[in-house]
Amino acid sequence: MALILSIESSTTVCSVAIHENGMLVGILELHQDNVHSQKLMLLVKDLMERVGLMPSELQAVAVSSGPGSYTGLRIGVSIAKGLAFAHQIPLIGVDTLEAMAQQVTPFVKEADLIIPMMDARRMEVYTAVYDASLRKLEPVEPRVIESNPFLEYLKERSVFFLGDGVKKLKEILSHPQSVFLEKFNSAASVGELAFKKFEENKFEDLAYFEPNYLKEFRVIASKKNPFLV
Questions:
Q1: How many beta carbons lie within 10 A of that of residue 204, not counting itself?
Q2: Least enclosed by CB within 10 Å: which of 75, 111, 131, 143?
Q3: CATH number of the domain enclosing 116
């Protein structure tokens, strides 16, 4: 039996889930801005109590590893590493965009593509391209949403665009084979992929594991007072 706690904190969503052998046992989610530091660990404790488990019964802890919010990822990974270290269990990192794509795999046809995208401010998104079996066709990267993007993928197949970056894309892309889904990130899909990694013994090194921020954290100085940020 593999009991895995999963954490998703790469966006404004705080999400924690527990899976047993890849099947969802319980999940708690908050859709609020700037609450990760106050609420995420409380959600973990609440969920463990609701499903009647002790942390010592877990076989692994999984965490969404980015890209995404610098603060959200840092908090989620810190909590996951702390739990893994305290209970001497493996840590599993799951690519955030792949976990997003996992949500729609039951609904796509073999020839379809999945393009998850996360808002990265202004007209930029974090994105990657996957086929129906989650094979990565284009790497995770920041991409500026310009006129008629992704048209090369829409010529012969349907393309499922999902995530909070979809709002930007819908403003400039109109194509009969494009499907727009404003799905939220969720620990449910993180846990599904984590179980596959658990079976393959694909674990992270606790000492060196860091989130994939994709962009360096930038502090912007106040225009009125350059000594304030």
A1: 20
A2: 111
A3: 3.30.420.40
Residue 187 to residue 192: CA distance in whole angstroms:
9
Q: Which residue in this structure is represented by tokens 């877990």?
A: 58
Same domain, 81 and 109: no
pTM of the model: 0.91
Q: Which residues of the chain have pLDDT under 50?
A: 217-229
Whole-number pLDDT of residue 122? 83
Q: For Cα atoms 223, 224, 229, give the angle at the middle one, nearest 5 degrees.
A: 65
- Over residues 78-88, the pLDDT tens digits come to 999 999 999 99
> So what's the pLDDT on residue 217?
42
- Determine the structural domain holding residue 80 and report its residue range: 3-96+185-199
Burial tier of 23 (Cβ tally within 10 Å: 0-12, 13-18, 19+) = exposed
Which of 171, 165, 191 minimizes the C-alpha distance to 26?
191
Residue 69 lies in a domain: yes
Shared domain check, 195 and 110: no
Dump the DSSP string for 57-90: G-SEEEEE--SS-HHHHHHHHHHHHHHHHHHT--
128 with 145, same domain: the answer is: yes
